Amino acid sequence: MSNEFVVRSLDEVRFWSRIMKEHSLFLRLGFRCEDTQLINEANHFYSVFEAIESKANAYDAGTDPQTIQRFNIEVHTAACHIWAFKRKVLGLILQCRLPGQTNFPLLVDHVSREANYFRNRLEQLNAGQLDPLPDAIINENVFFLRIMADHAKFIGHLLDPSERKLVDQAKQFSDEFDTLLFQAQDIESMRPQSQTVPLLDQFLDQNRVSVKSLRDFKKTARDLIEACRIKSIIHPLLADHVFREAERFLFIIDMFERTLTGTTAKNVQIHH
Ligand SMILES: [Fe+2]
Ligand SMILES: [Fe+2]
């Protein structure tokens, strides 16, 4: 139990609890007004993650690691509950029991994958068992490339169809990230032989280029939506939300890059 454990735990919880809070809002906005039970559940999760977020902001690097370990367990429970809620909603949508609600099934699946990622990370932190660097690089990229490909699809489908140029651009990003995801899955299936420093380094470089340009596209979209300059049904907070997730991925790629080039040793613990 160390200071690094506290810092890394707080970084994950601060980022993802805000994300979970916003998912609750997005889900709620998509429900029909007669779905009062679902609306109440979504509002409940909003308050739960809002409270977790402020608690995480009140702790700092000097907080007792045991306090953070207990806090991680509490957050893990909340992440499990919101995951179950999202999967329940997905089931209702796929069984056509909420006709007219406006959350895409892929979006609900997507936010449940993010909840699952969050709870796995909390488990790993508390167990002190983070993936070795070469595995972490592949696992994180497979996870985030799919998340980025989904975002491009959501943007493309939530823009007004008359925004033809932006819809085209979103479709191009969707294809680009689908291709990168397939490449990542190829590297994944070739492991451990594919886990050489030059291959992983090139893998990170190539992904970084595309994530940067998607991040810039999201930033532009966010600014245009905030200024009411384009036609869409994208909530400004959703535009900012997907922008922040791209920034997070870039941050993780850069951290991997530094660790990878700083060492050639195998089985180094990930640093992100
Ligand atoms: Fe999200
Ligand atoms: Fe996302």
Structure description:
There is one protein chain. The protein has 272 residues and is mostly helical. It has two domains: 1-130, Protein of unknown function DUF2935 (Ferritin); 131-272, Up-down Bundle (Ferritin), CATH 1.20.1260.120. The protein has helices spanning 3-30, 36-58, 65-94, 105-127, 133-158, 164-189, 197-226, 236-262. It is globular, with a radius of gyration of 19 Å. The two termini are 17 Å apart. The relative contact order is 0.11. The model is unreliable at 264-272 (pLDDT under 50). It binds fe (ii) ion (2 copies). The site of one fe (ii) ion (FE2) has 6 residues, from helix 4, helix 5 and helix 8. This is DUF2935 domain-containing protein. It holds the Pfam family DUF2935.
Summarize this structure briefly.
The protein is an all-alpha fold. The protein has helices at residues 3-30, 36-58, 65-94, 105-127, 133-158, 164-189, 197-226, 236-262.
CATH arch. level architecture of the largest domain: Up-down Bundle
3D shape:
globular
Q: Which CATH top level class of the largest domain fits? A: Mainly Alpha
Low-confidence region ranges: 264-272
Q: Largest beta sheet, briefly?
A: none
- Annotated CATH homologous superfamily of the largest domain: Protein of unknown function DUF2935
The average pLDDT is 95
Radius of gyration: 19 Å
Task: Give me the number of helical elements.
Answer: 8
The CATH topology of the largest domain: Ferritin
Tell how many strands the DSSP assignment holds: 0
Beta-strand content bin: under 5%
Helix content: over 70%
Give the ordered list of helices and strands.
Answer: HHHHHHHH
Task: Kindly report how far apart the N and C termini lie.
Answer: 17 Å
Oligomerization:
single chain
* Total count of domains: 2
What is bound: which ligands?
fe (ii) ion
Organism: Paenibacillus stellifer
Protein name: DUF2935 domain-containing protein
InterPro entries: CotB-like
